[in-house]
Amino acid sequence: FGGDPNSVTIFGQSSGSQNSQQLLRSPLVEKEDLVTRAVCDSGTINHVSSLMNVDEVRENTLKVAKEVGCRGSSEEIRKCLQAVDGAAIMKAYADNKPIDMSKLPFAPVIEPKDAEDNVIPEDLSLRVSSKPWITSTANGEYILYLRMSKMVSPSWFENVRNHLTSYLESWIGQHTTDSAVKREGAQMLKNYYFQVMEPMENFTRDMAMLHADDGFIFPFLFNIEKQKNNGPTWAFRNEYKGELSGVSPWGEVTCVDDVAGHAETMNYYFNRRSTNPSVSPIETPEDRAVSKRLIKYLV
């Protein structure tokens, strides 16, 4: 687009934010000097949605491939998938998506060291970068999971509530095989997040809080602590509820809580009002003030 190839800023929100940070810290990208700086909104490298278990992702991939008629070696499956209609792949994806509040079937993984163009050869959350990085989280990250909860069967929540300890031990078990850690960790989570599990609305909100902390808040804190005293870093927590907060593009109010929602900071970096016809194309004075405050860190 006519820009300076020696000054490339990558932006991302949510999973795109996680991908942007992966690129900023990737040894391959660093070696090729492809990225100059990154801006990441509501998302950092984690082991929930940006670094999944390789075997689990492989198993899910083969399920989808089989459903659209692709079998054989990795290369045969790759060529077959490239020829399959995208709608068929999306249907197979939906049919095989885990019934869970936040579990994903696919996400980036740590690649084999001998893989060609290996972007993620290691856990990049443990690697630092000398390049400028802006990252943010919000006090309403949980709103994302409340939205997702509407796509999950009520019976799933009922089953998890009835077997909460097992669910939490299984969740912790994605990261450790130590039975004592799983048992003690599950009890700590129950004591902290699930003090009042009735009515179901309470339990659903508590689950949203748990998964928001697991997928966004803790990884945010971990990553900025790891990056400390390395490249220029500006990390902040967004608590501003603006005119676009909690409102869908078609005008539906999706959240009444007085919080900044997941990945809403991008509303202030870029004027997205043209995509939201339910509001005026002119920023409110308060929204504009937040935009000016954020943008000054970019220039």
TrEMBL record:
Molecular-function annotations in GO: carboxylic ester hydrolase activity
Domain of life: Eukaryota
Keyword Repressor found: no
Carboxylesterase type B domain location: 1-298
Gene3D superfamilies: alpha/beta hydrolase
EC number: 3.1.1.-
InterPro entries in the cross-refs: AB_hydrolase_fold, CarbesteraseB, Carboxylesterase_B_AS, Type-B_Carboxylest/Lipase
Transmembrane parts of this sequence: none
Keywords tagged on the record: Glycoprotein, Hydrolase, Serine esterase
Family classification: Belongs to the type-B carboxylesterase/lipase family.
Name of the molecule in the record: Carboxylic ester hydrolase
Organism: Lygus hesperus (Western plant bug)
